[in-house]
Write a structure and sequence with these properties.
alpha+beta, globular, disordered N terminus
Length: 127
Amino acid sequence: MSLCHSDLINQTNMSQYPYTFTLSTATGDHGHQYPLLTANQYPWMNVQIVPTPAAQRTLILDALNKRGGGVATVDGRTDFVAIQAGGGTDEHPTIPITRQNYQQVAAILRDCLQAAADYWAATHPAQ
């Protein structure tokens, strides 16, 4: 599931919810490995950390924004962005989105995505 529109999130305030994350390494379709954070609380979002080398940052951000979905950044950090990479498990199914709750669900997803980016920035110093 992704947000309905491209949304570059650039906030430094901490989440209104106390998220914790589990860090793992995932393998992409082309064999590359990347860090994956999984929220241990609702909305159980998976967040991919995407490296953004200085020479390619604008190109990467443009491509991510064109594909849609959320992109979270952290002020002062230009070495990565965070994107939603799915979520939900058998134990925690995906969130049903309706006309009545779509704004609330989108806000929760944005909040979780930003919390994951803030967590990564706090626990992984810039290289």
